[in-house]
Amino acid sequence: MKQLLETYPGKIRLVIKNYPYKYRDFARIAAEASLAAGDQGKYWEMHDILIARSPKLDRDSLIAYANELGLDVTKFTESIDNNHHKADIDGDIKLAESMDLYNTPTFYINGLQVIGERPFEFFKKIIDEELRPK
């Protein structure tokens, strides 16, 4: 996704919503961790670690990742322990359920639904078509 944003500066907008899978042990705390890292300007860095190191997403691992990223670990830990982003995540879950979404990741490009991870070129083709004057 970062590559797409860099390819189309000022032309596309990325909106991320959290939909932690309720049957995954650490999905909820991982969502909290990414948002807590975002509070300190390191959303993408945490996102990348969570993807690369899944399924090691328990609390202690998340705190270790925060330390590795140079985050204020005390603030980070307080955020995940106190569910600081609970309302945001709950709102995202309600939105997903209202849209009958059950798969992650799911992307929308001008209303076109894309389910699952796809290569850069797949998204680029769709975006180029959507940006083409009609």
What is the fold's blueprint, element by element?
Layout (H helix, E strand, L loop, with lengths): L1 H6 L19 H13 L3 H11 L5 H10 L4 H9 L4 H13 L7 E4 L2 E4 L4 H12 L3
Antiparallel strand pairs: 1-2
Helix pairs in contact: 2-3, 2-5, 4-5
Percent helix among the residues? Answer: 55-70%
* Average residue-wise pLDDT: 94
- Strand/helix succession: HHHHHHEEH
**Number of E strands:** 2
Radius of gyration: 16 Å
The structure class reads mainly alpha
**What is the global morphology?**
globular
**How many helical stretches?**
7
Main sheet specs: 2 strands, antiparallel
Distance between the termini: 25 Å
Instruction: Indicate the low-confidence ranges by residue numbers.
Output: none
| Portion in beta strands | 5-15%
Query: Could you say how many structural domains there are in total?
Result: 2
Q: Spatial order of the strands in the main sheet?
A: 1-2
Q: How would you characterize this protein structure?
A:
- By secondary structure, this protein is mostly helical.
- The protein folds into 2 domains: 48 residues, no CATH class; 81 residues.
- It is built from 7 helices and 2 strands.
- A hairpin with a 2-residue loop joins strand 1 and strand 2.
- Helix 2 crosses helix 5.
- The longest helix is centred in the first third of the chain and has 13 residues.
- The two termini are 25 Å apart.
Characteristic terms for this protein:
2 strands; 6% strand; mainly alpha; 134 residues; two-stranded antiparallel ribbon
Q: Could you write a compact summary of the structure shown?
A:
This protein is mostly helical. The chain has helices at 2-7, 27-39, 43-53, 59-68, 73-81, 86-98, 120-131; strands at 106-109, 112-115.
